[in-house]
Amino acid sequence: MKKCIKFVLYFIIVIFLLALITEIQIIYFGENAKPKKSDCIIVLGCRVYGSTPSPFLIWRLNKGLELYDKGYGDYIIVSGGKGPGENISEAKAMKNYLVYKGIDSSRVIMEDKSMSTMENLSNSKRVMEEKGLKTAVIVSNKYHLKRASLMAESHGIEGSYSGVFVYTYKNREITGYIREIPALWKYYLYKLFKVY
């Protein structure tokens, strides 16, 4: 009985330490990500309410717009398909927002088929190849950037990163940091067993 309790205790300690190390990696990457001048900016999709970008998506779009205005990319690739409860694709909602904000529509390239981060990046890579674009700044929430960077690298995207933290939704951001731990573990396991 004592051996069983010791095993469970050690197991809990190991899991806790692994989670702590993973969280440190996630936070460190997100806080230290710096954009580099590139051929394009990729804004990863997020929830759309009907036809309206969610607050998280608006922050990502505003960051993409800021980078574009500062000359970090000549094009913005908006990436995201149409999910449940969404009247239009995330990419279409994102393009509408950016054009409304004054960007020439010819500078906003839609990728509207993806349903996951992995598909966001694989499909955006295809768009980049079609347009002859070699480098990208990838924009998402800070907690999402570590995993996005691994996926981008696996698809051969030469990328730098820029993240947002939505202060008005601090609790949801904290939840995102916690949920990203198992999401990153899942990615590592999938890569290990070549599921992707």
TrEMBL record:
One Gene Ontology cellular component annotation held by this UniProt entry: plasma membrane
- Name all DUF218 domain ranges: 39-161
Keywords carried by this UniProt record = Membrane, Transmembrane, Transmembrane helix
Annotated GO biological processes are: Gram-negative-bacterium-type cell wall biogenesis; peptidoglycan metabolic process
Keyword Transmembrane tagged? yes
Q: Which Gene3D superfamilies match?
A: HUPs
Ranges in a coiled coil: none
Q: List membrane-spanning regions.
A: 7-30
Task: Tell me what this protein is called.
Answer: DUF218 domain-containing protein
Organism per entry: Clostridium kluyveri (strain ATCC 8527 / DSM 555 / NBRC 12016 / NCIMB 10680 / K1)
